[in-house]
């Protein structure tokens, strides 16, 4: 789990405080960033926005609950489950706007929004964020579009609320560096809480972690990706036959053991391309790829760019 979580890097973030007096409703539609909303006081509802003829019932949040959408999600946040909504960017924001947030934009302060209705007040703390290589990060696909952490599952988030409140009022130089590191702590902590809750039923690395034999294979791959792993060697790690591993691993993870090995190696290679000046030859050798040609072909296939194009694009982002 630590290997998976440590490989998820926040590259941009925006922190916000919402003070909302009912009635209010916010439509988070086509928002391409990840986001986290933590309910500090009051209550609100989450309505899933989809084209289903039988819409899902709204979900009530109480103080201490949080909703996390790692890749963004089409949701409505409301004071009344059947209330009307307005677009997120139509709220009366104060501070720097989140529109166009990317790794090239570094906010120098937090944002605030105050909605003056006549009903009960609700306070939320929010974060919008992007992960490095968010659209091609195969680990993120293991998480659902969104998940809710109840207060008893997210005591970690309650501990850091005072720090978030401090950052709301921080206008000093260096704000972005602190906010980004802080957001990474919050988001990774939330993802960890979700994993530990064992709620996932979608195929992927998180589901694989729940099976002891498959988890042994994942651990071996994560800890020593450079090893010359073969199906028989991985089967031995799991104390399974090759045929059983070949059948069970895709059932849990969604791909074969060797495909997963290559994806993990490519993920690490992408990290090195962006975060280090290590030569491409050195990266290829350190991760156990058989040939330069194999690496380049797989990298272009999974990332959509050549290694040199990838390094140039994300180093200048």
UniProtKB/TrEMBL annotation:
SMART domains, alphabetized: HTH_ARAC
Sample GO molecular function, one term: sequence-specific DNA binding
Pfam (any one): HTH_18
Highest rank taxon of the organism: Bacteria
InterPro entries: AraC_lig, Homeodomain-like_sf, HTH_AraC
Domain annotation HTH araC/xylS-type: ranges: 215-313
Protein name: AraC family transcriptional regulator
Keywords: DNA-binding, Transcription, Transcription regulation
PANTHER family noted in UniProt: ARAC-FAMILY TRANSCRIPTIONAL REGULATOR, RCS-SPECIFIC HTH-TYPE TRANSCRIPTIONAL ACTIVATOR RCLR
